[in-house]
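Trying the structure run again after the queue cleared.
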Amino acid sequence: MSDAARPLASRPVPRTVRSARRWLRALHDELGVAGLAAAAALPGLAAAVDQHAAAVQDATTIGLEATAAVAGLLLLAGYAHGVLTEALAHGWHPPAAGPQGWSRADWTSVRLAAVCALSTRPDRVGSTDLPPWPRTITPPST
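Done. Tokens:
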């Protein structure tokens, strides 16, 4: 079974830049698109995503040199994989698509949306093969 056909959480922890990009792209498709679109419509959610993105940025870059974007990408994918795997083990489900479903998004949903937001930043991915940050949301400052 190809990775594309497997549920995201059952895929192995990304160990290469290529697998990290692929895993983050799948997370973005499965959760980030809906979460970031809802954040564009809900200022409170946008603020929460920004705060979570800053926390994730700190958690995955403290101690890394600016030239370690590749290592940072692997850390970001590994971090998100761990959050998702643990959440699913405890019965977590993503919110329904759209602003109404996301208006009461839990910690895990907002955290993973923040990872998606970070994963689209060129300084994190080192290329433009992931969708750009939505223009309606201000990316977190670094």
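Helices lie at 17-41, 43-61, 69-89, 99-102, 107-119, 122-125. Worth checking whether this holds up in the mutant runs.
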